[in-house]
């Protein structure tokens, strides 16, 4: 905990929680057992985030492509989702955590939709961490939806083509109410984005670890934040420009 700088925390961290299946396989267990263990990591990472003052945490829980998995695994994941939300909602409230969802909610089983909606409503006025679950989410789906809305507005003369800019596109994404993540973590060793937040990650720092999600806990999370804090975010400028700005800020304090 000593190794992180509380004044330089990322506002928004996004995580691709990967490796539940491999974690279980290494223990000669069923993939679903890995998903159950993964929930323990979710709980810990959510609580640590709230405790240290992260404002937004987006967790990739189920992608559009994950519908193509065997039916038994999809059913088990949906069941796990419903049960977890039901069990955790009181703790979310206790910890002042607001739950939000991004993704194609209409494609989830009705039971999940009802449970999610209830938990979102019950936590809506909480003012601490905003926990955003990406469910039946894919960035290409989200961009297609946004482009359709923008095109419809242009066609009906409610929007001028010249008014289309970066901010307008952001405002049409499912993440419109949240700032872009500064840090994206992917566990379990794959170096890819897997259709997650393509537009929003444009300038995020990417952190990859070989640790499987069920083993990714407080210590590994703080290590990722520490790594992020040691990077120089240049946004196209030179290192000298960044250093000069930092010196000026220090001197004016
Ligand atoms: C992540 O773990 C959880 C989901 C995608 C739902 P995986 O299930 O992808 O685990 P691996 O990658 O097969 O090990
Ligand atoms: C990405 O993991 C989706 C989630 C973590 C929910 P996957 O395991 O589905 O991604 P791929 O198949 O390795 O790209
Ligand atoms: Mg995977």
Report on this structure.
The chain is 46% helix and 13% strand. It has a 6-stranded parallel β-sheet, sandwiched between helices. The chain has one domain (6-138, 178-252): 3-Layer(aba) Sandwich (Undecaprenyl pyrophosphate synthetase), CATH 3.40.1180. It is of the alpha/beta class and 253 residues long. The protein binds 3-methylbut-3-enyl trihydrogen diphosphate (2 copies) and magnesium ion. The site of one 3-methylbut-3-enyl trihydrogen diphosphate (IPE) has 12 residues, from strand 2.
Question: What is this entry, summarized?
Answer:
The protein is of the alpha/beta class and 253 residues long. It has helices spanning 20-26, 31-52, 71-94, 110-123, 139-155, 166-171, 218-229, 239-252; strands spanning 12-16, 56-63, 98-102, 130-137, 183-186, 205-208. The chain has a single domain (6-138, 178-252), classed as Undecaprenyl pyrophosphate synthetase (3-Layer(aba) Sandwich).
Tags for this model:
Undecaprenyl pyrophosphate synthetase, single chain, 8 helices, alpha/beta, 46% helix, 253 residues, 6-stranded parallel beta sheet, globular, binds magnesium ion, binds 3-methylbut-3-enyl trihydrogen diphosphate
Taking the sheet with the most strands, its summary is: 6 strands, parallel
Q: How many domains would you count in the coordinates?
A: 1
DSSP strand content? 5-15%
What is the H/E order? EHHEHEHEHHEEHH
Q: Tell the overall outline.
A: globular
The count of DSSP E runs of length 2 or more, i.e. the number of strands, is 6
Low-confidence stretches: none
